[in-house]
Amino acid sequence: MKLKNQLLQPCFLLALRFLALVLWSFPGARALDNGLALTPTMGWLHWERFMCNVDCQEEPDSCISEKLFMQMAELMHSDGWKDAGYKYLCIDDCWMAPKRDSKGRLQADPKRFPNGIQSLANYVHSKGLKLGIYADVGNKTCAGFPGSFGHYDIDAKTFADWGVDLLKFDGCYCDSVEHLENGYKRMSLALNRTGRSIVYSCEWPLYMWPFREPNYTEIRQYCNHWRNFQDVYDSWQSIKSILAWTSSNQKRIVHVAGPGGWNDPDMLVIGNFGLSWDQQVTQMALWAIMAAPLLMSNDLRQISPQAKALLQNKDVIAINQDPLGKQGYRLRKEDNIEVWERPLTDLAWAVAMVNLQEIGGPRFHTISLASLGQGMACVPDCTITQLLPVKSKLGFYEWTSDLKIKINPTGTVLLRLAAN
Ligand code: GLA
């Protein structure tokens, strides 16, 4: 009892907080030195929603064409997306013509991109946005368009000449692990040599895993973000599998993330067809906890006000973009409730509680605040705000308090704990 009282003395608690500040401030592994992605990239990427639709005759409004990207650019500019932080408008696979030009350069499909990528980049830049493009380290892209193998320098130069600001580099059709690794490295160096600031988004670890465990420290030195796991689909099953992969590999991947380099659990599918409201809340909350790039793949021309408000939620985006740049992790799983936490600047913490039980109604879960943030999240006391599913100020809590929270099936309650 006496010892407990001593441990609760303000000086002792403040000393602990200081120690926590020092420990959490240690930088992660060295990042790609291009000064980019100091917080996770935010933007829009066409793949999950529009895939490889090249039939502009039948589906002029949803085929991969300059018109689609110009419409999205216009909306990103006018509907609050850019102001919320979504700046990168990214083209995925299927933008290319089937062959390189006579000088060996990649070229856009002339029917679907009649003005070419450079003119699209100018348009996107005129809206205050940045343009992303897609290519592949191997002989072909995943959809069968020309690959960059043997052409890394010329492709990097072409993208820089066009004014591209991000490259998603896929890993299909690579004939050996050596080609895969060397290719990802060589393209990183080639991009740097262009002198243009180009965010480099890799899928290197995803394609490495079948051969051997990726060397994440090395990957971080070459890429600004990297996909680890399968493509996201518009389904709860897909979101669950990404979360399960991430938590079961967190010892390998969490410490590697930090300013300049991030684990990429793939696109946000909020605003589409497959996720219930609670599941959309779960994706947004957990992508914030995971310090994930926020690349939406949806149709900004037709999106519900509710999904838009969730994607533009400033408090949640602030957690995702927290400048400390520490990725969160799963703290525990108990009775189908997962508790995740993420350290933030100023000794604050984000905490997400996910109810994975898919039968029954909302469930109560009680957590002791002393179990959060290695015991430091609420020392000696803190102010707690619920950010999702709706914002509400829960108030002042002491270190020794319990917190009882109600969570919908497949939903998440996201909290922010601020040290007083
Ligand atoms: C792979 C990638 C996806 C997408 C497609 C395009 O599957 O993982 O994100 O880029 O290729 O073909």
From TrEMBL:
It is found in: Lysosome. Its EC number is 3.2.1.-. Residues 325-411 form the Alpha galactosidase A C-terminal domain. InterPro entries: Aldolase_TIM (IPR013785), GH (IPR017853), Glyco_hydro_27 (IPR002241), Glyco_hydro_27/36_CS (IPR000111), Glyco_hydro_b (IPR013780), Melibiase/NAGA_C (IPR035373). CDD domains: GH27 (cd14792). Catalyzes the hydrolysis of glycosphingolipids and participates in their degradation in the lysosome. One of its GO terms (biological process) is glycoside catabolic process. Residues 1-31 form the signal peptide. Gene3D superfamilies: Aldolase class I (3.20.20.70), Golgi alpha-mannosidase II (2.60.40.1180). Keywords: Disulfide bond, Glycoprotein, Glycosidase, Hydrolase, Lipid metabolism, Lysosome, Signal. It is an enzyme of class 3 (hydrolase). GO terms for cellular component: extracellular region; lysosome; membrane. Belongs to the glycosyl hydrolase 27 family. Pfam families: Melibiase_2, Melibiase_2_C. Homodimer. It catalyses: a globoside Gb3Cer + H2O = a beta-D-galactosyl-(1->4)-beta-D-glucosyl-(1<->1)-ceramide + D-galactose; Hydrolysis of terminal, non-reducing alpha-D-galactose residues in alpha-D-galactosides, including galactose oligosaccharides, galactomannans and galactolipids; a globoside Gb3Cer (d18:1(4E)) + H2O = a beta-D-Gal-(1->4)-beta-D-Glc-(1<->1)-Cer(d18:1(4E)) + D-galactose. One of its GO terms (molecular function) is alpha-galactosidase activity. This is Alpha-galactosidase. It comes from Nyctereutes procyonoides.
